[in-house]
Automatic annotation (TrEMBL):
Keywords: Cytoplasm, Iron, Metal-binding. Residues 81-227 form the Hemerythrin-like domain. One of its GO terms (cellular component) is cytoplasm. Its main location: cytoplasm. It comes from the Bacteria. PANTHER family: IRON-SULFUR CLUSTER REPAIR PROTEIN YTFE. This is Regulator of cell morphogenesis and NO signaling. GO terms for molecular function: metal ion binding. It is found in: Cytoplasm.
């Protein structure tokens, strides 16, 4: 029995983020569902855990590395926070308005023939507003406290745990919204005769979901647990 089948999805991706792509392809949720073991997640999807573990192991020697693999479990938390803001938050601030405008155009032209677009627009706009507020809270309240906590501040941990719990709940809500968009769009499949804008919208929604998986994984499975360990050490 492969030892990896008893590790959680979050632990496996934290050790090597190249594994995230395979989990995405297999429909294994390693961000909000990152606390499940590989065996549990595979059984739920009707997959053989040993086979998936073997494929994961092969990735380390067969998959090309386009950029250095950073082990965020050992990097300073301030570095991880900088990466999240510069990579994922910057992406959302750029893509959410673009997708919102694109969705508006597509609904105006194709909404009558594709009724799901109108519900999709409502789901997306709620998601957009929620993520914008979420990022502001993280940057102004959560990340600043974690940075100070890492520097040894004894007061930085005040009210941090409730904020982390709130952020995790918001991650779950965002995951549900993204899942609904995937359902409505039939897994982002363009209908027959879809124009360039329609195809660009679906590609953008797929990319948004993929980036959010990495984003939430880095917070739920690495940043927040490490911050909680600092809180425990400070309390001790």
């Amino acid at each position: 029995m492969h030892p990896w089948i008893h590790q959680t999805l979050g632990e496996l991706v934290a050790a090597d983020e190249r594994r995230a792509r395979l989990f995405d392809q297999l429909g294994l949720d390693y961000c909000c569902g990152g606390s499940r073991t590989l065996e549990e997640a595979c059984r739920a999807r009707g997959l053989d855990p040993a086979t998936v573990a073997a494929v994961l192991e092969a990735l380390g020697t067969t998959e090309a590395v386009s950029e250095p693999v950073i082990d965020w479990r050992t990097q300073p938390l301030s570095n991880l926070i900088d990466h999240i803001v510069a990579t994922h938050h910057a992406y959302l601030r750029r893509e959410l308005p673009r997708l919102s405008a694109l969705l508006k155009r597509v609904v105006a032209v194709h909404g009558d023939r594709n009724p799901w677009l109108r519900e999709g627009q409502e789901v997306f706009e709620r998601l957009k507003s929620a993520l914008e507020a979420h990022m502001h809270c993280e940057e102004e309240m959560i990340f600043s406290r974690i940075r100070a906590l890492e520097q040894g501040s004894t007061e930085a941990g005040l009210e941090l745990e409730p904020l982390l719990q709130q952020a995790e709940q918001e991650h779950d809500a965002a995951g549900e919204a993204l899942h609904r968009l995937k359902e409505l769009s039939n897994n982002y499949q363009p209908p027959e005769g879809a124009c360039h804008s329609f195809r660009a919208l679906l590609a953008g929604l797929r990319a948004l979901a993929s980036d959010m998986h990495r984003h939430v994984h880095r917070e739920n499975n690495i940043l927040f647990p490490r911050a909680r360990r600092l809180l425990a050490e400070a309390a001790a």
